[in-house]
User: Which sequence fits this backbone?
């Protein structure tokens, strides 16, 4: 029997500083209903989908930023989203800033099944940007100040009748992210992102943002024979322009759906989870062809060693 999942990628346009969580949740529910109308089994929202991308500002006392974080999920503001999804029988994946009861700060995504149960929580592993205030920048990317990197790694869970994994934004640029999930039989990877077009350390990359976004997700999908769903918060947010181009990528590496705007926009694809086997059972039959005995440096070494 074919294992088809209809997936909605619910791109968001900008969320300004003045927008409340309640206002954002109204937008999320609108996209959720649209996804339900399109027959989606699951809808994927972006990274930090409840607030503006606050790491663009630095505050000397981090507790002044506490209001950007969720201390529980569902929270009071997001409960209507959880309730509506359960009522409609549609799953979802939602990114948010998490502040734990013992004071840890993570960039997190939650995966919710069609019956409303929380399947898994994923905390971002690769934290980009900088730790300290860099006042000469036009805007900060202080994720390394606001979030600690998760040591929990990349899990893969059973959901929607498939093997589902998660990654967040910068994780998608690292091949290890996909391979660790590929080795757990992942069939579908869900990823939210916020990618400013202007890359301050090397502006020559600005014009390539869309190319690099597609490049990493298409190659990650193909090399691991998995579906990849990348969902942006795009558009001009507090003066910073961010990439849209949300996309759904097949295990062949082909883009099967892509957003046309940088605003709230739903794209949908009917995804056959058995398509994966054409790749994982042939060219990328890991058990037959991989050579882990010569890949030791991948896990024993972090930076480049030339001698
Ligand atoms: N949110 C996130 O991880 N963004 C980064 C921006 C580049 S690093 C400043 C990304 O990899 O898209």
Assistant:
């Amino acid at each position: 029997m074919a294992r088809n999942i209809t997936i909605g990628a619910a791109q968001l346009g900008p969320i300004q500083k003045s927008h409340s969580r309640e206002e954002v949740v109204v937008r999320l529910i609108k996209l959720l209903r649209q996804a339900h109308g399109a027959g989606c089994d699951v809808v994927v929202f972006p990274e930090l989908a409840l607030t503006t991308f606050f790491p663009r500002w630095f505050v000397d006392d981090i507790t002044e930023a506490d209001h950007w974080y969720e201390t529980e999920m569902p929270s009071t503001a997001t409960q209507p989203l959880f309730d509506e999804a359960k009522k409609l029988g549609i799953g979802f994946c939602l990114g948010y800033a998490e502040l734990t009861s013992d004071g840890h700060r993570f960039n997190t995504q939650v995966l919710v099944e069609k019956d409303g149960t929380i399947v898994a929580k994923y905390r971002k592993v690769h934290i980009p940007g900088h730790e300290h205030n860099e006042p000469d920048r036009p805007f900060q990317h202080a994720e390394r100040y606001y979030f600690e990197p998760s040591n929990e790694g990349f899990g893969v869970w059973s959901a929607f009748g498939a093997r589902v994994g998660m990654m967040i934004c910068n994780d998608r640029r690292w091949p290890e992210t996909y391979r660790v999930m590929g080795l757990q039989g992942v069939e579908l990877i869900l990823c939210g992102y916020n990618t400013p077009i202007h890359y301050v350390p090397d502006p020559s990359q600005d014009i390539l943002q869309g190319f690099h976004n597609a490049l990493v997700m298409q190659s990650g999908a193909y090399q691991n024979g998995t579906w990849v769903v990348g969902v942006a918060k795009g558009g001009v947010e507090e003066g910073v322009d961010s990439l849209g181009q949300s996309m759904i990528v097949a295990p062949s590496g082909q883009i099967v759906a892509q957003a046309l705007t940088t605003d709230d926009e739903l794209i949908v694809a009917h995804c056959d989870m058995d398509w994966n086997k054409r790749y994982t059972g042939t060219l990328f039959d890991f058990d037959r062809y991989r050579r882990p005995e010569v890949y030791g440096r991948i896990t024993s070494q972090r930076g480049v060693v030339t001698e």
Notes: The chain has a mean pLDDT of 98. Residues 47, 128-129, 141, 169-170, 173, 193-195 surround 4-methylsulfanyl-2-ureido-butyric acid (CB under 6 Å). The two ends are 53 Å apart (CA to CA). The longest strand covers residues 91-99.
